[in-house]
Design goal:
alpha/beta, Rossmann fold, 5 helices, Lysophospholipase, AB_hydrolase_1
Length: about 200
């Protein structure tokens, strides 16, 4: 799209708990996010929202060897780049799996208005403080064997103490990688991102 957008959706891809391997074009998590971006960007653009996809430097969260965890500085750098290129536009963080955890970690950025998390990795004790005053929407399937629906539900319960709004959608018997009911995942990503940005698709 051309001109200054009404808002921006920053996509944050998944990863794994530990891994210092570079995220290259062969990374399945990054390619999955890029593929989703290609399918949702048209609708988001028509509503006036730009879409950016961040590629982390390395594949892992790496909290045992990195402080803050590896993708967090990358996401903060990307938010700085948004301000440098576009100015003070509202940003929604759209994250899958580890990307959802990364999104929560940097949600305290002043440009961020909300987080949309898809099958997020939100283990017990994950801080909810960065979501203070922000919107949070998550979708998770009960057949997920990689991340936990129950942990996401517990996180949402805790987040209600600080977030401006919290929503959890039970996607039923779908797994982690969003291969089942792809249109449903995409529709959730688009509708919640636009709602948090306060814009809508043209009639």
């Amino acid at each position: 799209m051309t001109g200054r957008p009404e808002g921006l959706v920053l996509m944050l891809h998944g990863g794994k708990a530990d891994g210092l391997t570079e995220v290259d074009d062969g990374s399945a998590s990054w390619r999955r996010a890029r593929w989703m971006g290609e399918h949702v960007s048209g609708r988001l653009n028509r509503a006036g929202a730009s879409v950016w996809l961040l590629r982390y430097a390395v594949r892992g969260w790496n909290e045992r060897v990195a402080s803050p965890p590896s993708p967090v500085p990358d996401a903060r750098w990307a938010l700085d780049e948004v301000r440098r290129e576009l100015g003070d536009v509202p940003v929604v963080l759209l994250g899958h799996s580890m990307g959802g955890r990364t999104a929560v970690a940097v949600a305290d950025d002043p440009s961020v208005v909300g987080v949309v998390a898809l099958a997020p990795w939100l283990p017990p004790g994950e801080p909810v403080g960065p979501l203070a005053g922000k919107a949070f929407a998550a979708a998770h399937g009960r057949s997920d064997k990689i991340t936990s629906f129950r942990q996401t539900r517990a996180f949402c319960h805790a987040a209600r103490e600080v977030a401006s709004s919290v929503e959890l959608v039970d996607r039923g018997r779908v797994g982690h990688y969003m291969f089942r009911d792809i249109p449903g995942w995409n529709a959730f990503a688009v509708s919640r991102s636009l709602a948090q940005l306060g814009v809508s698709l043209p009639a």
